[in-house]
Amino acid sequence: AVIVDEAWSKRSCKSNYNALSGVGCIIGARTKNEYYMDVKNRLCLTYKRKKPRQINKEHKCFMNWNKIATAMESNIILKRLQKSLTTHNLIYGKIIDGDSSVYKKL
């Protein structure tokens, strides 16, 4: 069994779903081991503040999401659950989550 949890960079209160980043993690329910954690970002401050030709070639950009904010969290969890067998040699038998968005995706 694993516990999955997701969060956004700002509270939405059932409206204004426009967070610029989201995080998702998978933790063993019994072992408390962290199996996975990832962050999705819809904004890069370097790109926002500078013109594209002014950006250094070695810039490490953290912008890795260009879809709607509501899909960030469940996408992080879903992608990792699909790779759990090859990554950790695990099949998650039970998923515990307080958020229904992941269950809908599964």
Proportion of residues in extended strands: 15-25%
Structural class: alpha+beta
- Segments where pLDDT lies below 50 for 5+ residues? none
Widest beta sheet: strand line-up: 3-2-1-4
- Please count the helical segments: 4
Rg, please? 16 Å
Query: What's the order of the H and E elements?
Result: EEEHHHEH
Strand tally, please? 4
The averaged pLDDT comes out at 81
Terminus-to-terminus distance: 15 Å
Sheet of most strands: 4 strands, mixed
Task: Explain the overall architecture.
With 106 residues, the protein is an alpha+beta fold. It has one domain. Helices cover 25% and strands 24% of the residues. It is built from 4 helices and 4 strands, in the order E-E-E-H-H-H-E-H. The chain has helices at 45-49, 72-82, 84-88, 100-105; strands at residues 2-8, 21-28, 34-41, 95-96. The protein has a 4-stranded mixed sheet with strand order 3-2-1-4, covered by helices on one side. This is Mutator-like transposase domain-containing protein.
Features:
24% strand, Mutator-like transposase domain-containing protein, 25% helix, Mutator_transp_dom, alpha+beta, 106 residues, globular, four-stranded mixed β-sheet
Short description:
With 106 residues, the chain is an alpha+beta fold. It has one domain (2-99).
Reconstruct the topology from this structure.
Layout: E1 2-8, E2 21-28, E3 34-41, H1 45-49, H2 72-82, H3 84-88, E4 95-96, H4 100-105
Parallel strand pairs: 1-4
Antiparallel strand pairs: 1-2, 2-3
